[in-house]
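JOB MANIFEST
job_type = single_chain_structure
chain_count = 1
residues = 117
[input]
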Amino acid sequence: MQIKNLFQVMFYTALLCIMFLATTTIKIEAVESMWDKSNHFIAFFVLYVLLSLAYKELSAKVKITLLLAFAVFIEVVQYFIPGRFFSLMDVVADGIGIAIGIALYGFYRNKTTKVSS
């Protein structure tokens, strides 16, 4: 398996796990014990990095658009789930995770480019 394919599998696995955690009504202790915004931040940071590693040909603008659309989609779905609700602040936390992902992935890419040069 090529490394790109491995990152694609990791990205879609993370995406499915995040979708499950965002839409389940099951109380999961490990998730419930953390600050909600940190969950969002970490999830979208990881998604951005994995998406970047899996699909290097996509521009940052496309990746940001896709992930923010997913963030809003999750919040809209949560609006219709009993005990869950739409939160614009969750989308903001997602956006911050994406922004940090952009910065750290850019740093990583620059470091690996300099090493291979």
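[summary]
Residues 88-116 form the longest helix (29 residues).
The chain has a mean pLDDT of 91.
exit_status = 0
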